[in-house]
Amino acid sequence: MNHNRKQKLAVIWTSGDRDVALKMVFMYTYNAKKMGWWDEINLIVWGPSSKLLCEDAELQEYIEKMQQEGISIFACKACADMYDVSPQLEKLNIDVKFMGEPLSEYLQKDYKVITF
User: Percent of the chain scored above 70 by pLDDT?
Assistant: First the structure.
């Protein structure tokens, strides 16, 4: 892998489908960081995924494992507020903030962006 430039990935997780979370989003994101496929990974919890995460202990444990691996995790405050889950997400050590501007920056800069 070319490491002349830092390889940065933003994973946008919007799906409220638990299988999509466990069998694709989380599995790839975690392994991509653990195996060094990307230097920096930001996981963004957006929309229905914020509600699902707050209702599912197994997903919450996986989030903690990703944080320990060095993955930065954010949640869209506008969406989390709509689902009334911002305080629960913050208790999971997720940075809850308005994500429209940060996502725009990811798209305009050197990040690769994938959405699920």
Answer: 96
Q: How far is CA 6 from CA 1, 12, 35, 90, 105, in A?
A: 10, 19, 15, 28, 16
Q: How far is the C-alpha of 92 from the C-alpha of 115, rounded, in Å?
A: 22
- Encoded tokens for 16: 């409220």
pTM of the model: 0.93
**DSSP class of 109:** T
Here the tokens at position 63 are 């989030």
Q: What is the pLDDT of residue 116?
A: 94
Tokens of 46: 């957006």
